[in-house]
Each structure stands twice: as C-alpha cells, then as structure tokens.
Amino acid sequence: MAVGVRVAGNAVQRNRIRRAIRECFRLHQHELPAADIFVSARMASKGASNAEIAASLQRLWGQIRVL
Known about the structure:
elongated, single chain
C-alpha cells in the first residue's frame, strides 16, 4: 500500500486513507484470489470520504475477482 505525501498531504490524512484501505481489504479478503495486491492512492482520495474510498476499492476488488 502506498499513500504518498503529494497525494494526501499530512500524516493524519495519509493514515486515514490507509485505515480505509485496510478495513475494506479486511472485509473482502475472503472473496479475493491468493495474489499480491498493491494499492496506490491517487489525488482524488485526499478529498474522498471513507465510504467513497471503500466504494472505489470494491469496484477494483470486483475486477481482480474476474481475472
């Protein structure tokens, strides 16, 4: 997982995004294939709510399940 300073700014925002990613993964890990998954946050995640981050990740988890 990578959340850079340029993406989220201060440590509080970076850690909030990391927590949201970890929680979403924890809830969906049983649905995902056994593979290494690298999540890199983008600029839009800075202003996004935790629900928006989770929705985005759920779409990505769906794409991974298809592969």
